[in-house]
Amino acid sequence: MPRYVGRCHCGSVKFAFDSEPIMSGLRCNCSICVRKGAVMSPDVIAREALEIEVRDDALAIYQFGDKTAKHYFCKQCGIYPFHETARFPGKLRVNLGCIDALDPLGMEVSLFDGKHLL
């Protein structure tokens, strides 16, 4: 199983996980995801399976609505590396654009209708 390593733009937030090969991505049309425009991992990752390294307390969280989902971002460069999903608490999706070994813009990308879910 491949090991994927990612980071925010400035490198203050790094993460790694093992996964089946990532061949496609996922986008969501909810109010925050459509504004972020990121291509996310198609499968969720268990919290304990995502190794996270943070320098200088750079990882921040943004929540809204019922505050179930947790949207993480780097306080230094503003990049969104991953989020905890509202539908699967304790599970995360990562921003595929943060993984240098992947080209999310060259992948098939599915759309998830989060706008009408809540």
Brief descriptors of the model:
five-stranded antiparallel sheet; 118 residues; three-stranded antiparallel sheet; mainly beta
How would you portray this structure in words?
It is a single chain. The chain has a five-stranded antiparallel β-sheet with strand order 4-9-8-7-6, with no helix packed on it. A three-stranded antiparallel β-sheet has the order 1-2-5, with no helix packed on it. With 118 residues, it is mainly β. It has one helix and ten strands; from the N terminus they run βββαβββββββ. It is globular, with a radius of gyration of 13 Å. The chain has one helix at 31-36; strands at 3-7, 13-18, 24-28, 45-46, 51-54, 59-62, 70-74, 82-84, 91-94, 108-112.
Q: Assign the structural class, choosing from mainly alpha, mainly beta, alpha/beta, alpha+beta, or little secondary structure.
A: mainly beta
Give the N-terminus to C-terminus distance in angstroms: 34 Å
The overall pLDDT, averaged over residues, is 95
Which bin fits the share of residues in helices? under 10%
What composes the largest sheet? 5 strands, antiparallel
- For the secondary structure, the number of strands is 10
Instruction: Report strand %.
Output: 35-45%
Unreliable stretches: none
Q: What would a concise description of this structure say?
A:
The mean pLDDT is 95.
